[in-house]
Amino acid sequence: MEYTVLDALSRQDGWHMRMRQLARAAALSSSATTRLVTRLEDRGLLTRILCADDRRGIYTELTPAGQALLHQARPTHDQALAESLQEATKQPELDGLVSFLQA
């Protein structure tokens, strides 16, 4: 899940998202997202910023350390995903799905 959150934030213009958007992107509940964001914030990988136009809103933003960790982890993540998809093609019931995902 940590990778998913860092990746979702990296794909945003300005490198930040509202907590609600981040929860949807990571397919987590609000409380699970808050706990995960807190853990990542404690490690210095992201930060929370109050929304200037809506004081109730909170943005989550990657820090330079979060960007660096994501950059370092991406090749391993991509390789593991490619290997998993390749292995899935050996299952006849998954072959069509894998072909669709790779298209």
Going across the biggest sheet, name each strand in turn: 1-3-2
Largest pleated sheet: 3 strands, antiparallel
Q: What is Rg?
A: 16 Å
**Based on helices, strands and strand pairing, what is the structural class?**
alpha+beta
- Which runs of at least 5 residues are low in confidence (pLDDT < 50)? none
Record field, number of beta strands: 3
N- and C-termini, Cα separation: 25 Å
Q: What is the helix tally?
A: 5
Q: What is the helical fraction, as a range of percent?
A: 55-70%
Tertiary shape: elongated
Strand content: 5-15%
Series of H and E elements: HEHHEEHH
Tell me, rounded to a whole number, the average pLDDT.
88
What does this entry look like structurally?
This protein has 103 residues and is of the alpha+beta class. Helix 1 packs across helix 4. A hairpin with a 7-residue loop joins strand 2 and strand 3. The two termini are 25 Å apart. The longest helix is centred in the last third of the chain and has 25 residues, at 64-88. The protein is built from five helices and three strands; from the N terminus they run H-E-H-H-E-E-H-H. Helix content is 64%, strand content 13%. The mean pLDDT is 88.
